[in-house]
Amino acid sequence: MAHVEMTPAVTPTLAGEVAQSPRRRSLLGSIELALKWLVEIPAAILVVAEIVILFAGVVSRYVLHAPLVWSDELASMLFLWLAMLGSAVAFRRSEHMRMTALVASAGPRLWAYLDVVATCAALAFLLLIVHPSYEYAYEESFITTPALQISNTWRAAALPVGICLMVLFALLRLARVGNLKTLLTAVATVVVLIALFWFAQPLFKPLGNINLIIFFVGVVGFCVFAGVPIAFAFGLAIFGYLALTTRTPLMVLVGRMDEGMSHLILLSVPLFVFLGLLIEMTGMARAMVAFLASLLGHVRGGLHYVLVGAMYLVSGISGAKAADMAAVAPVLFPEMKQRGAKPGDLVALLAATGAQTETIPPSLVLITIGSVTGVSISALFTGGLLPGVVLALTLSGLVWWRYRGEDLSHVRRATSGEIARAFVVSIPALALPFVIRYAVVEGIATATEVSTIGIVYALVIGLLIYRQFDWRRLLPMLIETACLSGAILLIIGTATGMAWGLTQSGFSRALAASMTGLPGGAATFIAVSILAFVILGSVLEGIPAIVLFGPLMFPIARLVGVHEVHYAMIIILAMGIGLFAPPFGVGYYAACAIGKVDPAEGIRPIWGYLLALLVGLIIVAIFPWISIGFL
Question: Helix (H) and strand (E) counts for the chain?
Fold first, then answer.
């Protein structure tokens, strides 16, 4: 899962902007600063609370043999608050995920206008959903939690509170827009579009399932390509579909969002995100990379092989691709550039390894698939290892071809003693991914519980062995964890609402009938799925595409005789290729941002790596044993 920043609504260099008065700017800044700490500090505390509660549950269950019956329930209640406060943090920081390829190619004035439109569109969805979220929280007051025996409103209240906080941040962002004409034009555009849909309501009723195309293809496509964050594009589409074409109470949409964000398995999302940040800060990632470099640094293309191998190992600890790339690239890129590697080729390979390692547990996409489709997390964790190896081999083949003539006359080969020392130093770090996989696969702990074990392990190793623990970075890391987790979970929530709308419309039955009727059976179904998920991965990213289409496609895969774990590996790798493929794949731009390289430099070299990935994907698709041979 890659992560890219949403472009701020205003940039000081845009022509035609009017400077704000210092007094107004100071007042707005003071209000936003107060709201910032009001949201970010509780969000950071919630991340710590989740770690403590879940680890206490693990210790009480497996060490003291006295399970805490309330731990999962309390963790689930706090998790929804973490998701909504994290979403608010992401909104304030402009870090909700969106596709900016087309927006970025526009001129400065159009770019500024579309940025304000994106904020107005997000604000429109939030205002439309705030009352149904209040109603939903009120209805939950009649439910009492089984273990803690308190009203479920304490949990559900996170939804209206988080939505209202995002409304405040949206209004503050709009108040900072210096060009009044741009602001009024953007607001008028969104108001007029919503009014047109509202007055066209009588026209939608007789259209039946054509409305699915209008809202779930037309509205979503228009919003995504216009730069509206993906979560809010999904939200506007499903809200419009339910409000204008059905009689479904809108409170049901909030319920589906709550359901999507509240799966207990998703508790591992913020924990693995934090673990990824932790291994970079404690030096564990650097130790692993140093050992691989001592082994392979002297061969032609050696550091490129190290990059491929390091991403595989680091992905076995963190589930977030951006965290993986950020842990590996700064360690290797300086030396690779000294050896003459072109920056464009480096970020191209970095992006390709991001796609290659999407199936490596504990990938957030694997966890999401398990959450929305019911496929065993243990089976997914086991099945994801070999496909990553196959794609690593195809990438390495291309690296060998490209760097077969590399001049290494100035490179000194590491001695056996240096390799041994690097190995000893790296042992604590190398052990962590194996501990995580063993604990989950052997049923010792769930994916959520093992993430807390990994965090405690990394804390101990960082403090006592590597001694690179920077306490000053802890609060920013906790806030970053809440921010990225909130952005991911809000997408899952609105995508769950869309998936429910698709299912209720009967679309899933029609899709199943058409897909099972394809000539060629399972082979054709797999080929169509690969093409579809490459496109979806490019436009929507992996997690929202999985939440939307996983519940629809996995039952069809079973009907045509494709093993669910094999199918999961195929679509994850296909989405990864789309996610890191320019010009639309946001993962590619995240890799460029981490490598500090102009995206234009990597466009040409990445196509060879994408072709190598596609060859690996075809091999995985043809031979199911690669995915299910060890189940």
Answer: 30, 0
Q: Closest Cα to residue 448, out of 365, 537, 377, 549?
A: 377
pTM: 0.83
Q: Give the pLDDT score at 317.
A: 73
Question: Among residues 312, 321, 328, which one has the least CA distance to residue 434?
Answer: 312
Cα torsion 580, 582, 583, 589 to 10°: value is 60
Residue 307 · residue 396 · CB < 8 Å: no
CB of 62 within 8 A of CB of 48? no
Neighbours of 466 (CB within 10 A): 18
> What are residue 144's DSSP bridge partners?
151
What CA–CA distance (Å, rounded) separates 271 from 443? Answer: 19
Q: φ, ψ for residue 25 (rounded to 5)? A: -65, -40
Q: What is the DSSP letter of 616?
A: H
Give Cα separations from 278 to 39, 224, 286, 454 (angstroms): 22, 32, 12, 10
Dist. CA 446–CA 263, nearest whole Å: 13
**Contact at 8 Å (CB) between 267 and 79?**
yes
Q: Name which of 373, 380, 393 is nearest 566 in CA terms.
A: 380
Contact 547, 492 (CB under 8 A): yes
CA distance 465 to 315: 22
Report the alpha-carbon distance of residue 612 to residue 606 in Å, rounded: 10
Round to whole Å and give the CA distance between 18 and 580: 38
pLDDT in tens, 272-306: 888 888 888 888 888 888 888 888 877 887 888 88
Percentage of the chain lying above the pLDDT 90 cut: 36
Of the candidates 158, 206, 177, the residue with the CA atom closest to the CA atom of residue 113: 177
Phi, psi (degrees; rounded to nearest 5) at 38: -65, -30
Retrieve residue 387's tokens.
Answer: 């496909």
Written as one letter, the residue type at 452 is: T
Q: What angle do CA 541, 544, 545 make, to 5 degrees?
A: 75
First to last CA, the chain: 25
On the CB side of 169, CA atoms within 13 Å amount to 30
Note the pLDDT tens digit of each residue in 88-109: 999 999 888 887 767 777 778 8
DSSP one-letter string for 112-157: HHHHHHHHHHHHHHHHHHHHHHHHHHHHGGG-B-TTT--BTHHHHT
Q: What is the DSSP string of 236-253?
A: HHHHHHHHHH----THHH
Largest Cα–Cα distance in the chain?
79
Q: What is the pLDDT of residue 199?
A: 93
Query: Is the dihedral angle over the CA atoms 280, 282, 287, 288 positive or is it negative?
Result: negative
Q: Is the dihedral of CA 147, 148, 152, 158 positive or negative?
A: negative
Q: Which of 389, 400, 399, 437 is nearest to 623 (CA)?
A: 389
Quick check: 374 pLDDT over 70?
Answer: yes
Torsion over CA: 555, 558, 563, 569 (sign): negative
DSSP string of 569-605, one letter each residue: HHHHHHHHHHHTSTTT-HHHHHHHHHHT--HHHHHHH
Helices (H), 301-408: 302-315, 321-338, 343-356, 364-373, 377-383, 385-402
The tokens for 239 are 């809200």
Per-residue model confidence as pLDDT tens digits over 393-419 = 999 999 999 888 776 667 778 888 888
Q: Residue 362: is the preceding peptide bond cis (ω within 30°)?
A: yes
